[in-house]
């Protein structure tokens, strides 16, 4: 691993473990240079990456101020299971299985004109550090996975699909909007209707192009963050 990435992960761990809390200043560049025995530019690359991801605000003449890191960062340009995301971010998270229903038509709001599909509906609430942040509605294509076990629904659907069923997940198409909270959002996420919801509607395809599942993921907007790396091509 490159040195600046190692420093980035060390500082990120310090922020997420509350060694550095919101409103604190990170050690100065010179202090970090002495701690890690690297160049100032290496330190600046690590700090700049944290700033780009919303963990820090760099203030000229003052230093790097720690911002509110009580959010989840979701990558949209890749496909990752929630369990993988939890592991990567070192989160204290619990899956609350709300309901499982069989032979459920996929809502037209997820199909975007695609043919109707009968699914197994799995509803899960994601609780992070004791606070409900996300509700996921997964509509699993019954022609591909006819009966997902309750244990798999509680643990990881992707792990079950790939490791147990041997399916090869290839790509997903995602639609992202911000919408008013609905009644169920208020109940499941313990919020009032003034809190907006980031809604991610996606369809996940296998390597043979079959639809594996449709998902509607509903996130508390005040606890939501998404960061992607983008390059301008000329």
Automatic annotation (TrEMBL):
InterPro entries, sorted: Bact_HTH_transcr_reg, Chorismate_lyase_/UTRA_dom_sf, TreR, Tscrpt_reg_HTH_GntR, UTRA, WH-like_DNA-bd_sf, WH_DNA-bd_sf
Organism: Lapidilactobacillus achengensis
Keyword Ribosomal protein annotated: no
Alphabetized SMART domains for the sequence: HTH_GNTR, UTRA
Lineage: Bacteria, Bacillati, Bacillota, Bacilli, Lactobacillales
Pfam families referenced in this protein's UniProt entry, alphabetically: GntR (PF00392), UTRA (PF07702)
Record domain HTH gntR-type: where: 1-69
The entry's keywords: DNA-binding, Transcription, Transcription regulation
Alphabetized CDD domains for the sequence: WHTH_GntR (cd07377)
Record flagged with keyword Nucleus: no
Protein name, UniProt field: Trehalose operon repressor
């Amino acid at each position: 691993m490159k040195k600046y990435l190692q420093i980035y992960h060390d500082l990120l761990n310090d922020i997420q473990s509350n060694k550095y809390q919101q409103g604190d200043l990170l050690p100065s560049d010179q202090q970090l240079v002495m701690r890690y025995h690297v160049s100032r530019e290496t330190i600046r690359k690590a700090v700049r990456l944290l700033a780009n991801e919303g963990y820090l605000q760099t203030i000229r003449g003052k230093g790097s101020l720690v911002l509110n890191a009580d959010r989840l960062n979701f990558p949209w340009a890749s496909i990752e299971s929630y369990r993988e995301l939890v592991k990567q971010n070192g989160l204290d998270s619990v899956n609350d299985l709300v309901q499982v229903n069989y032979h459920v038509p996929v809502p037209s709001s997820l199909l975007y004109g695609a043919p109707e599909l009968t699914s197994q509906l799995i509803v899960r609430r994601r609780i992070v550090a004791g606070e409900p942040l996300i509700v996921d509605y997964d509509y699993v294509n019954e022609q591909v996975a006819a009966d997902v076990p309750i244990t798999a629904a509680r643990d990881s659907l992707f792990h079950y699909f790939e490791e147990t069923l041997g399916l090869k997940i290839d790509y997903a198409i995602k639609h992202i909007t911000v919408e008013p909270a609905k009644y169920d959002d208020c109940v499941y996420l313990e919020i009032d209707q003034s809190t907006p919801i980031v809604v991610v509607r996606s369809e996940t395809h296998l390597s043979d192009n079959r639809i594996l599942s449709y998902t509607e993921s509903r996130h508390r907007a005040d606890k939501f963050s998404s960061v992607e790396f983008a390059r301008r091509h000329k």
